[in-house]
Amino acid sequence: MDTAYGYGPYGPQTRPHRVPAALRAPFEGRTWREFLHLLLDLPLAIVMFVYAVTMTSLGAGLLITFLGVPVLAAALGGARGLGALERARARALLRLDVAAPEPVRPARAGLLPLIGALLKSGASWRHLLYCLLHFPWAVFAFCVSLVLWANAWTLFLYPLWHWTLPTFTDQPGIQVYGSEDGRDRFYIDSPFEIAVASAAGLLLVLATPWVIRGLAQVDRTMVAGLLGPSRLASRVTELESDRGVVVDTAAADLRRIERDLHDGAQARLVALAMDLGLAKEKLLEDPDTAARMVDEAHGEVKLALQELRDLARGIHPAILTDRGLGPALSALAARCTVPVTVTVELPTRPAPAIEGIAYYTASELLQNISKHSDATAASMDVWRVETRIMLQVTDNGRGGATASPTGPGEAGGTGLSGLSERLGAVDGLLVVDSAPGTGTTVTAELPWREQPGPSPRRLGPGSGS
After folding, report:
1. N or C: which end of the chain has fewer CB within 10 A?
2. Rounded to the nearest 5°, which phi and psi values hold at 300?
3. Which residues of the chain form CATH 3.30.565.10?
């Protein structure tokens, strides 16, 4: 069933479309935008092809002299400008947002360094290649889309305009075939033939949008593959972004630890020191009062120690280091307000960093269940798939959670978007399946790295509740 997406009080919801996609497609804005893009392909491709062939041929011909080098550099620079135009057109008509490629960075200021940087830029040569390759494709896509579109609507609307042929011409209808001498001619002029032609036109009208979308998808592939940043540059940008997330996360964790120490254990220890000082003064004057104050201070010491243990457990629990992920997750589930069944099936222990991230992820997800889900039962499963470690947490609560930073789930305090950013910083992935009223399933995927050491301890399946 075709669906439309929206947001309800607890997250994304869906509602069925009344009109099937096959009947909507000829009238949707997407179809008309993509059709316009294919029509504009041909004139723009002609300009780009002529420019690329002319400048490249001129530059190659002048390479016998020094003038060929700057001409080739100018060809590459112009191709980058045309590529920017194509990216803007794809963004407006194809809804494809392709980032600009890495800029040309000459080693120093001046014309010669700029020419050298242009000639050594792989992105510039890919733009020039796009100008050459896009022309034959644009001719094909223009002809196919225009011929299909025109013939489809012409045949479909034939019952409305067929009267113009006998009225203004000497033909009774559309001529399908006929000899030059005027014999054996066949015209579509009877009511039955007109109805059949209109039905064939309707089929073409319904099929043409899907052909147009297929042709437009090839355009998307060419723009994304040739006019965007290289795979290496994209990876560098992604790593820089991930590094920023890691730095921000570490800073936030340090601020949280500092706040917890200042507002919790430190405040209790300051109060404890003051109470012990007062008890010391009253030790000789009022031993009973001093003993009572020492007893109260003893209770404060226990509370301070418990807060310090909780803080240390939140940073990196000792059970995780000593016994591994299975027992640590079972202990974590035991503190959840909802009964949780834990199953861990790992052949060996992963690297400590991966264990820590998996533990933190499970902790955040269980906190969400306790605070927001209204669930009565939950389960947690951990297993390995080839080079990935999978962690899945499921509950039977109200659902409606979302990892979108602007979605209602975030407003409700689930924090899934921040968790998704943390996982993304280590090439992880977070998938949320949470239709309203059907519970929530959150699957976290992390890269698998073996724990260093000659003989890592094997872990069998573990369970807890």
Report:
1. N
2. -65, -35
3. 318-447
Q: Is 107 within 8 Å of 117 (Cβ atoms)?
A: yes
Q: How many Cβ atoms are within 10 Å of 105's Cβ, its own excluded?
A: 9
Q: Please spell the DSSP secondary structure of 53-67, one letter per residue.
A: HHHHHHHHHGGGSTT
Nearest to 335 by CA among 373, 311, 363, 316: 363
Domain with CATH 1.20.5 in the chain: 232-315
CB 458 within 8 A of CB 415: no
CA distance 218 to 228: 15
Domain formed by 232-315, architecture:
Up-down Bundle (1.20)
Single pTM value for the model: 0.56
C-alpha span between 165 and 281 (Å, rounded): 117
Locus of tokens 């020492």 = 294
| Burial bucket for residue 386 (CB in 10 Å: 0-12, 13-18, 19+) | exposed
Question: Stretch 402-427: mean pLDDT, rounded?
Answer: 61
What is the distance in angstroms between the CA of the first residue and the CA of the last residue of the chain? 39
Q: What is the mean pLDDT of residues 160-181?
A: 80
Distance CA 26, CA 32 (A): 8
Type of residue at 317: P
Q: Using the 8-state DSSP alphabet, how is residue 384 labeled?
A: E
The pair of structure tokens assigned to 365 is 């997800």
Q: In a 3-state reduction of DSSP, which class is residue 278?
A: helix
DSSP string, 315-364: H--HHHHHH-HHHHHHHHHHTSSS-EEEEEE-SS-B-HHHHHHHHHHHHH
237 confidence band (pLDDT: 50, 70, 90): low
Q: How far is it, in rounded angstroms, from Cα 223 to Cα 41?
A: 12
- Residues 12 and 376: their CA atoms lie apart, in Å, by 23
Average pLDDT on 265-285 reads 75
For residue 103, give every residue at least 6 positions away whose Cβ sits within 8 Å of its Cβ, in sequence order, or none. none
